[in-house]
TrEMBL record:
Highest taxon above the source species: Bacteria
The UniProt record lists the keyword DNA-binding: yes
DNA-binding region(s), chain positions: 32-51
Descriptive protein name: TetR-like C-terminal domain-containing protein
Swiss-Prot/TrEMBL keywords: DNA-binding
Domain HTH tetR-type: 9-69
InterPro entries: Homeodomain-like_sf, HTH-type_Tx_Regulator, HTH_TetR, TetR_C_Firmicutes
Pfam families in alphabetical order: TetR_C_8 (PF14278)
Length: 190
């Protein structure tokens, strides 16, 4: 039974990998099941054993990339655990860089950023529990996640031109002290 499961897993993975190779160069609307199955070396019926359509392949890939609370250690703010630390977010992006660089880039799925934010928000709110019930906090978390995802996407698009340490240091300064403080300290008075 284990061999059957391994074979099924490998078949599904090969289809997903073939789809991904094509998706990196082509808009999803232009990708056909025939194209994917030809590249993977399977027939259409094998494809439909695992997926409903091309969009389902992308959806399943994206679901594997979304963080869950078990995978994310808590961040500490004022000696309290709060949610997802930047370094864990960076590590997550780097481990699956070939996917994130495409999905967060101009060729990617515009809905993926929303899915990523929602997944991270769920993890943060699960960590907070019933401690906080604030519409304002929701805006703060949305702002923070937008900044984190935006800077990570930009970093990937620039070929990771800053070291991980520099990026974490810069992001930490911006989160701790704000943009105005950074500009005042680093640009206006140097």
């Amino acid at each position: 039974m284990e061999k059957v499961n391994d074979k099924k897993h490998m078949t599904k993975k090969r289809i997903m990998d073939s789809f991904w190779d094509i998706y990196c160069d082509k808009k999803i609307e232009k990708i056909t099941v025939k194209e994917v199955t030809t590249k993977a070396g399977f027939n259409r019926s094998t494809f439909y054993e695992y997926f409903l359509d091309i969009y389902d392949v992308l959806d399943q890939i994206e679901k594997e990339l979304l963080p869950d609370i078990k995978a994310l250690p808590p961040i500490k703010l004022a000696n309290q655990n709060f949610g997802m630390p930047i370094d864990s977010f960076l590590k997550m992006l780097e481990e699956k860089e070939k996917y994130y660089s495409v999905l967060l880039g101009e060729k990617g799925d515009p809905q993926f950023i929303r899915k990523l934010k929602d997944s991270a928000k769920n993890a943060i709110y699960t960590t907070l529990g019933s401690k906080v019930d604030s519409e304002e906090l929701d805006f703060v978390i949305e702002y923070t996640l937008s900044a984190m995802i935006g800077i990570m996407e930009y970093w990937l698009s620039k070929g990771k031109n800053l070291s991980n340490e520099k990026l974490l240091e810069l992001t930490g300064k911006l989160m701790d002290n704000g943009v105005s403080s950074y500009l005042t300290d680093n640009l206006l008075y140097t």
